Each structure stands twice: as structure tokens, then as C-alpha cells.
Amino acid sequence: MSVLDNFDQWKSFLGERLDQAEGKGLDHNYVSEMAYRIGDYLANEVEPRNDEERVLAELWKVADEQEQHTIANLMIKLVQHQR
């Protein structure tokens, strides 16, 4: 089973990656840029596997670059608040 199959697993995966980045001393700007790049890749290259991913992909595709950065930062914030 892929972490993309279930949105809760996806959030858990993102949280673990965020913990690793913070543990290595990476600053928020770096983490934010990586979240943006991952979001862009997923929206353009990976077929959504659940309703939540579908909504995120659709939002990403209609957003301008600044709004996409906001979406990426909100995903970071979401997983931070679920720890």
C-alpha cells in the first residue's frame, strides 16, 4: 500500500519527513520550498488516489504560484498541528 492511498497515511508521512528535516536543522524556507516542489510534482505527475488528494490537485492547478506556496505551507501547518 502506498502512502498516497490514504490521506491520513499521507499526512503521517509528511509529518515524519518534516520531523527529519527539522532534526537536520533545515530552516522553514527550505522546508517550504521542498513542500512546494513536492506539491507541484504530485499535482502534475501523480493521479489522485482519494477525494482529499483530488481536491488538493484541483486547487493546485487553478492557483497561481504564490497561492501554490500558500497551499504547501498550509499542508506543513496541518501536519505540524497533528503531532
From TrEMBL:
The source's superkingdom equals Bacteria
Q: What is this protein called?
A: DUF3243 domain-containing protein
Short name of one Pfam family: DUF3243
Q: Which organism is it from?
A: Ectobacillus antri
Q: Which InterPro entries match?
A: DUF3243 (IPR021637), Uncharacterised_YmfJ (IPR024702), YmfJ/YflH_sf (IPR038292)
